[in-house]
Each structure stands twice: as C-alpha cells, then as structure tokens.
Amino acid sequence: MLDTLSSTYHIILASGSPRRQQFFKDLGLDFEIRLKSVDEIYPEQLQHHEISDYLAKLKASVFKEELKDNEVLVTSDTVVWHENTSLAKPQDAQEAFDMINLMSGKTHEVITSVCFTTATSQKVVYEVTKVTFETMTDDEIWYYVNNFKPFDKAGAYGIQEWIGYTKVSRIEGSYANVVGLPTHLVYKVLSEIETLF
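Above: the chain sequence. Below: its structure as tokens.
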C-alpha cells in the first residue's frame, strides 16, 4: 500500500507539530510539510468533536485553491474536553496550572480530528480517548509546568512527558491520539485514498 500511495499521491502535512511530523515518519509515509497560519476561532455553539472537526477543516481551507489533482492535504486539531468545556493551549504558566488542576483526580477526553483534503473532495475523521489523572499536589503541577512549559499543547500537558509517566492512571482508547494523531485512522484513510478522488 505504501509504495503505491507514495508513487501515485503526494501527501502534504500541514502541521508544525514535531509530534505529528514524527508520526508520519514512523508510519513510513513520504510527505511534504507546508505551513500556513490561521486564526483558530470557532463558533461558540460547537461542542466536543464538532470543535476539532471545524478547526481541522479551517486549517485546510487556506490551501484549498492550490491543491493539485494528485495531492492529499492532511490537517488536524486536538481538543481536550473536560466538564463540557474545551481546554485549549494555555496562554501562560498560571493558565496551564489552572487547567491541570481542574483535571487533577478526574477523567477527561482527548479528541483529535484529522481532515483529508484533495482538489475535489474532503473527509474528516476523529478519535476520542479518555484519560484519567491521579490527584496532583500544587507542587507537582508547578514542577511540570515550570520544567516542561506545555504552552503549545491543548489541555496544557503532553502525555509523553513527566506528567504522563507519573500521573496518568488510566487510558481508554488510542495513546497516539493523546499525543496528537490517531495514527490507526490516518493509516486506514490513506489505505483507502482512492475513495477520496
């Protein structure tokens, strides 16, 4: 599948995330990175995966007019959903502390939507993973925030870092999804890529 995919289609990953870029390398995919900035603003009425779906499609919209016939653009967005609220990337250390403190001792959901766009069609898939944190002290939260500075991560944490090793007691679903990409879904869609054209 991978040889046929690489020879027939040109995959474009529109993500500056080193984690997502590494996932694509680990999947054995030949791909190009293209980056364009977009204001990640969504309608207030959107809930749960509707938010990440919308933002993944929004990130693709700025590339739509330039895609060639054999190109597949992949965009994605991750949302941390807790107590009916979306926890985005924190603006500063205090906001990061507050987010983690809010999730301490509780279970939240990590939702990643992936949008596949061609010159003629578009497909969006999403994955939901439940993550349970053990109760954390203020000192533990500040240790993580000050040492790992998780300001580029939704929900203010990276499961592949210290907090994941020490304070995640349970995961229900895809681990890769929490890191930032539901790799099994990406592989599945790309394996069936002909259906997009």
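The chain has a mean pLDDT of 94.
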